[in-house]
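#structure-requests
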Amino acid sequence: MTRSAKVTTPTNNNIIHLLLLLLLSHLLLSTNSLPLTFSDGNNHTITQNYTNTNVFLLNGTTLLLAQHATIISAPPSSSDAEEAIRVENSIFIGQGGIIVGGEGVGGTGVTVTTNKESDQVSSATFEGGIEVYGGSAGRESTTRGGNAVQILQVGSEVTFYGGKFVPGTGCTRDVCGVPTDDGNSIQLLYGKAIIKGGTFEGNIYSVSGVVEVHGCVEFDGERISGFLLDGSRMDVVYVGDVNDLDIVYDASVCQEELTDVEEPSDSSATPSNANARFNAFARITRMSFSLRSLLLISALGMIP
C-alpha cells in the first residue's frame, strides 16, 4: 500500500502570522532605528549601544556618555548627512564610548548648535575615553567625508580635554567617478572650540568661529604643532582666519622630539631611554585600542 504525502496549503491567517513574525524579528535585530530624543531638561546617561540612531538633545537637557564600550552610530543615508548626536540648546558630556556619523553622504559625529531665540546656549566636553568619527562618503559624487565634531552658531562652546577625533573619508574615484575631500576633525561655523587635549586626525576648519589651543604649541601659518596639556602630540592643518586662532602657550608641557635612541651596553637604562620606551609603549597601546574599536565597529556592520 502506497501512502501519499500530505500537502498543506498555507491559509491567509498563516501567511499573516508569518509576516508578523518576520517583521518582529527585523525590529528586534535592527536595534534602535528610530531617533532618540532627550528634551525634558533633566540629566540623562547612556549606557547601552544605539546603532542606526540619531540622538537629539533639546531644551536644556544634559546627556552623559560614560561607558568606554558604548557605541552610538547614525544610520546610513544616500540623501542626507546623518548626525549621530545633535546638541541643541543643551549640554553633552563625553567621557567614554564611540560615536560614528552616518555613512553614505558623510554624516557628522557630534553637532553642537544654539538657536538664536534660546536663552540656553549649547556646550559639550570631550574627555580621554571618547572616540568620534565622521561618516565616510560613498554614494554621492558631490559629497565629502563627514566632520567628527561640528560647532554652529554664536554661543556654542566645545572643550576638548582628550579623546580621538577622526573625520570621515571622501568618496573614491572608483566609487563616485571623481574623488571628494575628507571631512574635518573640527568644523566651526561660529561658536568656540577650546582644545586642551586629544588627538586630531584631520583639519581644523573655521569659518568665523574661535579656536583656542592650550599647550606647548605653535602655528607656522599652516599647521598647529606641538604638545597639548594632556601630553598629546598635535600636528594639524588649520584652515581659517588667523585672527580667530588663539594660542595659549604653556611651556610646562613641552617635550623633546623622540629620536632613535641607542640602548646602553649594560642592563640599566638612563632616564631619557626609560622615557623613550614608555612613550613608545603608550603609542602602541593607543594604536591597539583604536584597532579594537574599529574591529568592534566592523563587527556591528557599521563599516562596509
